[in-house]
Amino acid sequence: MAMIWCNGFQLTMPDDEDEQPTAGHIAILSSTIELIPFRHLACLRLIEARPRRGHPRRGGHDPSTRTIRLNRNIFSSRENDPLNQTFLHELGHLVDRAFGVTSFVRRLHTPDAEALLNTSHTGDTNGAGERIADCYMHYIVNVLAGIRSTNRAYQDGEGERRFRVLLASPAFTRSGSSA
Ligand SMILES: [Zn+2]
Fold first, then answer.
1. Is 44 in contact with 64 (CB distance < 8 Å)?
2. Strand order in 67-71's β-sheet?
3. What per-residue confidence (pLDDT) applies to 121?
4. How far is the CA of 119 from the centre of ligand 1 (A)?
5. Residue 175 has what pLDDT?
6. Which residue spans within 7-79 are E strands per DSSP?
7. Which tens digit of pLDDT belongs to each residue from 24-73?
8. What separation in Å is there between the alpha carbon of 101 and the centre of ligand 1?
9. How far away, in angstroms, is 63 Cα from ligand 1 center?
10. What is the percent of the chain where pLDDT is above 90?
């Protein structure tokens, strides 16, 4: 197992160079990490780049070890340039777990909260937590990096109403993590 530092975080990868992310992929990951809100940095400790035939097939996360796992294949997909959106989605899950975002949003019962919880999601897993992780990813990409989403649910007013819910959650209103 090879290990390098990526913007303050350990990034492990297979020894086989063909299974490692390229220097360009690592630069994108590094730029992505720069966008993480300071209060969320403690939710992450380790990033693992996994071989193409390994698990997970795309991205995965483990709150107990604050680890994000990324399959080698996702580094080459279009949505992960110029920012690694798969990484941001997985970080969204870790932030959700640390700050209880999903349970907060579920208790709101406002039209904006319902819109967020009913946003369509494409992925292997489903449920409210996937919507929260997507919203977190879109917030970083759209608002913090200023890159307009191609997803209609995150354009203009539709995006703003969903981001308002996220920003009202403990992940943005409470400092420090309870994890
Ligand atoms: Zn997910």
1. no
2. 2-6, 9-13, 46-50, 67-71, 59-62
3. 80
4. 14
5. 64
6. 9-13, 46-50, 59-62, 67-71
7. 999 999 999 999 999 999 999 999 999 999 999 999 999 999 999 999 99
8. 14
9. 13
10. 92
Show the tokens assigned to 26: 């690592």
Query: How many angstroms separate the CA atoms of 104 and 98, rounded?
Result: 12
Distance 111 CA to ligand 1 centre (A): 23
Strand 46-50 to 9-13 pairing: parallel
Cβ contact 162:141 at 8 Å = no
Taking the centre of ligand 1 as the mean of its atom positions, its distance from the CA of residue 89, in whole angstroms, is 6
Q: Residue 2 C-alpha to ligand 1 middle, in angstroms?
A: 26
pLDDT for res 179? 47
User: 107-131: per-residue pLDDT in tens?
Assistant: 999 999 999 999 988 776 779 999 9
Distance 130 CA to ligand 1 centre (A): 5
Structure tokens at 54: 């390994």
Residues 133, 117 contacting (CB under 8 angstroms): no
The residue that leads in pLDDT, 120 or 136, is 136
90 Cα to the center of ligand 1, angstroms: 6
CA distances from 102 to 62, 73, 108 (A): 17, 29, 10
Determine the pLDDT at residue 176.
Answer: 54
